[in-house]
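Practice problem: predict the structure.
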Amino acid sequence: MSVNVDRAARVSPKADLRDGVSVGPFSIVEDNVVIGEGTQIDSCVLIASGARIGKGCRVHHGSVVSTIPQDLKFAGEETSLEIGDGTIVREFATLNRGTKDRGKTIIGSNCLLMAYAHVAHDCFVGNNVILANAVNMGGHVTIDEYTIVGGMVPIHQFVQIGCHVMVGGGFRVVKDVPPYVLVGQTPLSFEGLNIVGLKRRGFSREAIAGIETAYHYIYNSNLNVSQALERIQKEMVITDEVKRIIEFIKGSKRGIVGLKRKQVPS
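Answer:
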């Protein structure tokens, strides 16, 4: 296969387009760009300097990829935006490259970034993540694999969201969200396990039961978080899933989401 560039596109001779890449009309590909085999760039797309796009991706009409950070501390340093294989970027998404802090923004493989999503500088998005329409990530956000974020969700800078999480649409994320859970409401709150997602991805009943027990200690035992972690480590079998929960919470800098506050009758 050869590279197919529309006559109305503008591709730098210093860009590296691999076999089977196509570039649609009125798109621009700048210097210092690498686009992997079989990736399709639709019309009116900007692929800016520093982009590293994997194999078999598709970047839809009007998207802007690897532009400079919206960060006043950015001083023009050379950084990058990396996208893994098989990821789809829908219309008018905006993806910024990193700053000297992390040096790169990373989006994993087989992700779906829907229309108008924004991934800010120095973010990390794991494999198989779905960001629905108009999700807006602040800088330095981490979203682990197999997480789904509903539409119109703003995510505060430096927030961490664990793996296999479901974030309901339209809610604001200002605290860390631990793995395997479903969160919603205002303020954002723990609403149980992401049972449907866990079953679809082949988690055993025993694994799900262990996750459920760990979160019972954390959210329903009248213990503070530190006390709950101590009880988990003393009384539970520490499976891989439980270990991941413990490590996530211990590493949280913004604190984890709480339970929905009960309404007090007036």
